Amino acid sequence: MLVLLHGWPQSRRCWDRLIPLAADTHRVIAFDLPGIGDSAGVRTDGTKHRIAAVLHQALANLGVTDAVLVGHDIGGMIAYDYVHHYDDASRAVILDAVIPGVDPWNRILANLRLWHFAFHATPDLPESLVSGREHAYFRHFFDPLTHPGHPIPAEQQRVYAKAYATPAALTSGFDMYRAFAADSDHNRSLDACATPLLYLRGEHGMRMTTTSLDAYREGLSAAGNEDLTVGLVPDAVHYLPEENPDGTWQAITRFLGA
User: Fold this and answer.
1) Residue 131 backbone phi and psi in degrees, to 5
2) Residue 258: its pLDDT value, please?
3) 245-251: average pLDDT
4) 2-257: which CATH architecture?
5) Could you tell me the CA-to-CA distances from 70 to 132, 135, 154, 197, 221 in Å, in that order?
6) Domain segments of the chain: what residues?
7) What are the tens digits of pLDDT across the range 90-145?
8) Average pLDDT of the segment spanning 171-181
9) What mean pLDDT, rounded, does the chain reach?
């Protein structure tokens, strides 16, 4: 069973191109994160630990006992927390995410390109400025962070904007950023984890950063992730499942077969 967790500012629809590739050999579930899209009735405090607990209960209700979690961006942060606390996930895949509190977290926070971390964490202000302008605002995150040959279509971007188009959904998304400090403290307290973990980043995106893949490898290893594989997905910047679903699925398939 593959359990797919999206990032911000997306919904479960970010997996539309990867699911057909995976469905030939796996049962697949893609969730909207709590408070967003079709999960609008479920609210949390935005901490990844609390969201992981909601996910754990949902999988228990479905009778899932051997999940492979695949999380992109904030979904990857949730997958990371999940495998450190629950034993019903056999493996986890993290796609282009930074993990709060895990090196190179402090270097990431100092990167001016990630100005939105602080802006989104500001109480009330982002909601006031973004409400009713979701598509225009989100576009500034989609367009610069996709491979020039693999843009996210405007219609798909509008689908994502609609998933956040209520005040509660918009706040749920920003609350995930407001929780980063608590996430960081929590992650620093975690014990070692033996669950196999695959960490992937976009090859094109790594050329745009001041960090290296080795920095993430070293940080995750130092945090106690005992069975770690890292790699790059070609022709992708940040939105790996949409920019290069074939390359992303090939990397995941190799990991699952290892």
Assistant:
1) -55, 125
2) 63
3) 98
4) 3-Layer(aba) Sandwich (3.40)
5) 31, 26, 25, 10, 19
6) 2-257
7) 999 999 999 999 999 999 999 988 999 999 999 999 999 999 999 999 999 999 99
8) 98
9) 96
Which tokens belong to 16? 């539309």
Q: Give the largest Cα separation in the chain, rounded.
A: 48
Distance CA 177, CA 73 (A): 12
Cα(148)–Cα(76) distance, integer angstroms: 24
Confidence bin at 41 (pLDDT 50/70/90): confident
Q: How many whole angstroms separate alpha carbon 123 and alpha carbon 137?
A: 18
pLDDT at position 210 is 73
Phi/psi for 36 (5° steps) reads: -115, 140
Instruction: Count CB atoms within 10 A of the CB of residue 155.
Output: 7
Asked if 109 and 117 touch (Cβ cutoff 8 Å), the reply is: yes
- As given in the structure block, the two tokens for residue 47 are 């901490």
